[in-house]
Amino acid sequence: MSKKNFLAPFMILMITMLLVVFAGCGKQPAPQQQAPQEPQVKDVVLATTTSTQDSGLLDVLIPIFEEKTGYNVKTVSVGSGAAISMGERGEADVLLVHSPAAEKKIVDSGAVVNYQLVMHNDFIIIGPAGDPAGIKGTKAGDAFKKIAESKADFVSRGDESGTHSKEKAIWAEVKITPEGSWYQQSGAGMGQTLNIANEKQTYTLTDRATYLAQKKNINLEILSEGDASLLNVYHVMQVNPEKFSTVNKDGAKAFVDFMVDPDTQKTIGEFGKDQYGQALFTPDAGKKVEDLGK
After folding, report:
1. If residue 112 lies in a helix (H) or strand (E), which one and from where to where?
2. Residues 6+ apart with CB under 8 A from 255
3. What pTM, to 2 d.p., does this model score?
């Protein structure tokens, strides 16, 4: 074999090996998935209505939010009126409430931004099985008329919450100012008010979610429901960082985004089905309020 013939296969082998090496060098390393950036300010103050707490919904949602984002939620569970007042003073970062008329005022004033529809359920009128005022099956306004006319005992939240605002709107609709010993005010949250109504065996107005969550502990029945005026709508919103420099802007936005996220909306729509046979809330992100309940 000639020297030329001997070197040819060797040269081909060397060229092939060099091409493999250069090709390997040209490859970029696969990008590594980065962990979520740790928030600079971890605490997020959430001012919310008692129904989101008493129903157990926040016990499900907040741990998910904290795990996903690294934020720590400090929940202040009060009536919607008190929660909205906290927002007006810049004492919270984000609000989750259900008092549309009061919400409109703070949206219009610029105290809050990023106002988003989250979910709804409904209000119901409950009372003792004996139904002394005979309201069973009547609409909300007629039920309140009968209660006032018969002076049957009624317990009101009396705390400027979303539930109390709805109750006052019904009294105003039927042109009645409730007063007298039959009309009592608890000045407490929904769960406590239900307990008082149960102890005294009186009528009261409640959101359905809290009633279902507390039903095993109370002996009061649903007597009036399904009225269009009893729709109970929840919104989430950020306290405006341009008005209040101390609010956690990023944390508040993260919470608003979380509440309208499709995965969270799915969780809201499933909440309560396994325990109560029905969802306690209907998810509504992306919808219009005027289309709810249709």
Report:
1. strand 112-127
2. 44, 46, 65, 71, 73, 93, 94, 236
3. 0.81
- Measured between alpha carbons, how far is 171 from 176 in angstroms, rounded to an integer? 5
* Alpha-carbon dihedral sign for residues 121, 70, 286, 165: positive
Dihedral angle at the C-alpha atoms of 93, 99, 102, 106, nearest 10 degrees? Answer: 30
Return the number of other C-beta atoms located less than 10 Å from residue 42's C-beta. 14
Tokens encoding 166:
């709805």
Half-sphere exposure in the Cβ direction for 143 (13 Å, CA): 26
Tell me 229's DSSP state.
G
Integer Cα distance of 246 and 93 in angstroms: 9
CB 193 within 8 A of CB 210: no
Q: How many CA atoms lie within 13 A of 79 on its CB side?
A: 22
Burial 252-265 (b: 16+ CB within 10 A, else e): bbbbbebbbeeebb
Using an 8 Å Cβ cutoff, are 124 and 166 in contact?
no
Predicted pLDDT of residue 294: 65
The low-confidence residues of the chain, meaning pLDDT below 70, are 1-37, 293-294
Q: How far apart, in whole angstroms, are the C-alpha atoms of residue 34 and residue 144?
A: 58
Given this model, what pLDDT does residue 290 score?
86
pLDDT at residue 6, rounded to an integer: 45
Note the pLDDT of residue 26: 47
Q: What residue ranges define each of the domains in the chain, with the CATH number in brackets? A: 43-120+233-287 (3.40.190.10), 122-230 (3.40.190.10)
Phi, psi of 206 (to 5 degrees): -145, 160
